[in-house]
Amino acid sequence: MIEISNLSKTYGSGAQAVKALSGVHLTIEEGMFGLLGPNGAGKTTLMRILAGIAQPSAGKVVIAGYNLADEKARTDYKAMLGYLPQELGMYPDLTARQFVDYMAILKGMHIPAQRQHRVDEVLDMVGLSEAAGRKIKSFSGGMKRRVGIAQALVNDPRVLIVDEPTAGLDPEERIRFRNLLVDLAANRVVLLSTHIVEDIGQTCQKMAVLSRGRILYTGSPRELTGMAEGRVWTVTTQSTTKPNNGLTVVSMLHLAEGVQYRLVGASAAEYEGAVTAKPGLEDGYVWLMKSAGYEAAIQ
Ligand SMILES: Nc1ncnc2c1ncn2[C@@H]1O[C@H](COP(=O)(O)OP(=O)(O)OP(=O)(O)O)[C@@H](O)[C@H]1O
């Protein structure tokens, strides 16, 4: 469905040049695909290229047969694309229905009766039927994200791209939003970019990890978790110095008997009483980043 080959993107030139993407290869099939990476990894740059609104410096992107290097193909492709950018400007004094209707007009839906029917349909899909007549400024963060998804869905896209959609949502809103994306992925490609490991583990069958513009991993969340097998340890200590020696502290817990650290690294043999623990996806991610020579932005 989405074929990305040898994609690179450099901003600026000379001494100021920033290489945001370097030689990215990815194949993305139908269903939900997660792109995980720390801040500045290049996720937004990749999403914008895949949405046809930024041009790569080199490489090729073909989506559903459309080669995005071709202007005509890019225009045709946009009819089957839904995009929710990291920050979607909304008009706070419009109601949710008015805003989605306005976005539908911009997408070329000019037959009023059909458009209004579709607007109500997408507001219903995202669970906003009852709030459709309320002004956006009265909405919670989660409701605003759902308005964002509603506008992205109005043209019934086969490809839905969402960039960091759960940032700033409370846990309940995040779960609702994730479930909504999973439902939407039943019959389309949903591409989710995030720096939140949990968002991917709970929703995506396939994923990639991007760091400093390079793909470090593609596969399933389960396989990534498996990579940390035998590399995760818990140590309980009364010492006030944090374990170090090449180990990453993933979490710590104050207990009556001391501080319990969860560590990821090649070996915790030097810590008396260290026991291996069952890895989770976050451990897999931390181990991957360590193996590639980066410290995951966890501590
Ligand atoms: N318009 C631009 N001009 C110059 N540099 C840019 C521009 N946009 C992004 N960059 C740089 O490119 C790199 C990748 O940025 P990008 O926004 O794609 O990363 P990201 O993974 O989406 O990060 P975040 O999660 O913080 O949004 C960063 O070093 C960033 O500073």
Can you give a write-up of this model?
This protein is an alpha/beta fold. It folds into two domains: 2-224, Rossmann fold (3-Layer(aba) Sandwich), CATH 3.40.50.300; 226-291, no CATH class. Helix content is 30%, strand content 28%. The chain is built from nine helices and 14 strands. The strands form three sheets. Strands 6-7-8-3-9-10 form a six-stranded mixed β-sheet, sandwiched between helices. A four-stranded antiparallel β-sheet has the order 2-1-4-5, covered by helices on one side. The longest helix has 14 residues, at 112-125. It is globular and about 70 Å long. It starts with a strand and ends in an 8-residue tail after the last helix. The relative contact order is 0.14. Bound molecules: adenosine-5'-triphosphate.
List keywords for this structure.
single chain, 299 residues, alpha/beta, Rossmann fold, 2 domains, four-stranded antiparallel β-sheet, 14 strands, binds adenosine-5'-triphosphate, AAA+_ATPase
Brief account:
The protein is α/β, with parallel strands linked by helices and 299 residues long.
State the helicity in percent bands: 25-40%
- Number of separate domains: 2
Molecular shape: globular
Radius of gyration: 22 Å
Fill in the CATH topology of the largest domain: Rossmann fold
Family: Belongs to the ABC transporter superfamily.
Keywords: ATP-binding, Nucleotide-binding, Transport
Pfam families: ABC_tran (PF00005)
GO molecular function: ATP binding; ATP hydrolysis activity
